[in-house]
Amino acid sequence: MIASRESLGLALPTGALREPVGSLFESLGLALTGYESGSRLLRADADERGFRFRVFRERDIPIQVALGNYDLGICSDVWIAELQARFPGQRVVRVGALPGPATEVWLGAAPGAGAAPGQVPAPDSLDGVRLATELPNLTDLLAARLRLPHYALLDLYGSVEAYPPEDADLAVLAVPDAAAVEALGLVPLHRLFRGGVAVVANTASLAARDCGAVLERLAPAFVSAGAEITLPDRASAAPLRRVARTTDVLRLALPDGHAQRHTYAALADAGLTFEGYGARECVRRPASPIAGVEVKVVRPQDMPRLVAMGAFDIAVSGVDRLREHLAMFPASPIELALDLRRSRYRIGPVVHNDFPAGTTQEALGIWSRLGRPVRIASEFPGLAEEWARAHRLPHTAIIPIAGASEAFVPEDADILVEGTETGTSLRVNNLRMLDPFLESTNCVIAATSPRTSRRDLLGELLACLREGVRAAGGEIAGAQTGGESA
Amino acid sequence: MTDATTLSAPPVPRARGMRDLLPDQMRAFRRVEDAFRQTARHWGYEEIRTPTVESYSLFTAAGALSPEMLAGAYTFLDWDGWSGERVMLRYDSTIPVVRAAIDAGIELPARLHYVQSVFRGTEGEEWQCGLEYLGAPAVVGDLEVAAVAIDTFEALSAPVELRLTHAGVARAAVAAAGHTDELARRALFEDVAGGGLAAVQGAFTGQPGALAFLAAALGEPGELAFAGNLIALARIGLPAAVAPLEELREVAAALVEGGRPVAIDFTLPLDFDYYSGVTWELGGRGGALGRGGRYRPAGQGAPASACGFAIDVDRLSVHLGGAPRRGAAIAIAVERGTGLAAALALANSLHRHGVSAALGDTRDALIRLSVGPDSITASGPDFSCDCATLDEVVQLVLRRK
Question: What integer pLDDT is reported at residue A327 of this predicted model?
Answer without folding.
Answer: 92
